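User: Could you check the structure of this?
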Amino acid sequence: MRTILITGQGGTGRTTVAAATALNAARQGTRTLVLSADRTDTLGAALGVPTGADPEEAGQNLTAWRPDAAERFRDDLTAFQSRATTALDLLGAARLDAEEVTPLPGAEELALLRALRDAAMSESYDLLVVDLPPAPQTLALLALPEELRRYLRRLLPPERQAARALRPVLGRLAGVQMPAEWLYETAARWDIELAAVQAVVEDRATTVRLVAEPGPAGSDAVRAATTALALRGLPVDSLVASRVLPGATNDTWLAALAAQQRKALEEWRETYDLHEVPHLGHDPRGTDDLAALPVPGVNETPSPVEWPVTDHLADDGVLVWHISLPGAIREELDLIRRGDELVVSVGQFRRIVPLPSALRRCTVAGAALREGELRIRFAPDPDLWPRTR
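Assistant: Sure, the predicted structure tokens are below.
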């Protein structure tokens, strides 16, 4: 199934673009599901059909879904209390009733990730359109499955489960039931769920569309988002310039703003697959307004972001790892080699990536940023590299 993640600059009509994209695909015969994590029903307002905790038919071939974060959070907490009964009793902890539980910050995003996983596993849809939060929050959200799985492996290594035979003995010596067994079971279940979400995000059929209002602030937001998405290996298939003003106007104030927009649009056109969505003069409401918005169609999946390793051993004695980071600035880059991993930081965004097997037997010999590509040179370690006769 094709998945289109829609994010971008805050307050620029991301939900409207997501709804219009889903409607356009559905009217072409594609079975489409549009997801949103908004606590308020902005998606329903755009579609003209209320949305909620259960998927709702919003038209022919179109389903809308806004998962209920509060309900999922209550269910998870209740299940955790049931499994942690012994530990909670030892601590003298008072149990929380489901009726008094309110979702914590981030619950909406976690509910969206679960819905993303469930929708991707469904055979009822051909296209999934996801209305995501503004780009900074989206980037943290998309990084969450990979980062949490890494934390779980460090805190509860699977190999330590081999010691489970000792737990009953330790429990008798301590006089209490040891909670390690359910901890590992919970960690394993979480790992499976997170891996399913990560598989959707990293799938070759998953792409991102950025939404921004043309102007200086929009250009900065687009550049930062494009670089951070590339760091996560996610391709941007389109840039949607929203609320574009007409060029011809007798209003001096509007003419100056339109000129500023045109300058940004010219710059974007050189780099992105740009689609201009004109300002309708009012907030789009209902399918007629959405159909009037010329959003990009669902084309073929673009090529994924590749990080190839090239062999320059014969000429320069090094291997070069090419990491695509369009829009990156040298002053914002930072690299740290940590064992068999590389910590790559671009401004406020960071990713820890495992080294390809060949590079684990090398030392870092230098790096350079050229034409939106970070090229890291690795020299073979004589103590680890296979010797040739």
